[in-house]
Design goal:
This protein is α+β, with helices and mostly antiparallel strands. The protein is built from eleven helices and four strands, in the order αβββααααβαααααα. InterPro entries: Nucleotide-diphossugar_trans (IPR029044).
């Protein structure tokens, strides 16, 4: 609150969070995108997705969301479009202090329900499609100010959808094809493994102590 009051141009503050397995078991991990206090570039928030900022850590002026745009009100999730709206209304600032908890394995939570569903691949395809809709609408809302970062995420999610649905021969534009070619072998392997075998990949990620849900955006 102090930072927001002293810096009226800032429209979102967030901080690091400890990752705790429900009900209260510490994982020894944190959601910590930076190593110091700093302004968080809009590009980081776009590419990082909804898990980039711990939702419980968000502090922002109420006025920013009082007259919210359509892309925010009609989104399939709340955290990602909220972070996009807040940070694009001014700027986002990260405070390098752990002052909240991010719980995993909570019964009934969106992430737990998704990961435990029997048709996980189909659900993930729908999530990626929903994220593409958010980003497309946000791109128009910001008059394509962040087009390069948005297109990067859209291409990656389109690629993930094609892997998950096995539509590898679907029509693609030239820019999309160039993006796929630009991916490193390591990156392609991650995307293919994650979208072909999501549950197995998730278990492997936990064994390797990845921070955040699954680190696709390195």
């Amino acid at each position: 609150m102090d930072y927001l009051e002293k810096n009226p141009g800032c429209t979102m503050c967030f901080h690091s969070a400890e990752i705790v397995k429900a009900p209260k078991k510490s994982t020894g991990m944190k959601i910590k995108p930076y190593r110091r206090d700093q302004v968080s570039p809009m590009e980081d928030i776009i590419i990082g997705g909804g898990g980039f900022c711990p939702t419980a850590s968000l502090v922002y002026p109420k006025a920013v969301i009082e007259d919210s745009p359509d892309f925010f009100r009609t989104s399939h999730v709340g955290d990602y479009p909220l972070q996009l709206l807040l940070s694009s209304s001014g700027y986002a600032f990260y405070i390098n202090e752990c002052m909240s908890v991010y719980r995993i394995g909570v019964k009934g939570s969106w992430t737990t329900s998704l990961n435990s569903s029997t048709n996980l691949k189909e659900k993930m395809i729908e999530v990626n499609k929903g994220d593409i809709q958010i980003l497309t609408a946000f791109n128009h809302y910001t008059n394509f100010k962040y087009n390069d970062s948005i297109e990067q995420v859209i291409y990656e999610k389109t690629y993930a959808i094609s892997i998950g649905s096995r539509m590898v021969n679907e029509p693609k534009n030239h820019q999309y094809e160039e993006y796929v070619k630009s991916l490193s072998i390591k990156r392609k392997t991650k995307l293919i493994a994650y979208n072909s075998f999501p549950k197995s990949y998730g278990m492997l990620a936990k064994m390797k102590n990845y921070l955040l849900n699954i680190k696709l955006f390195n």
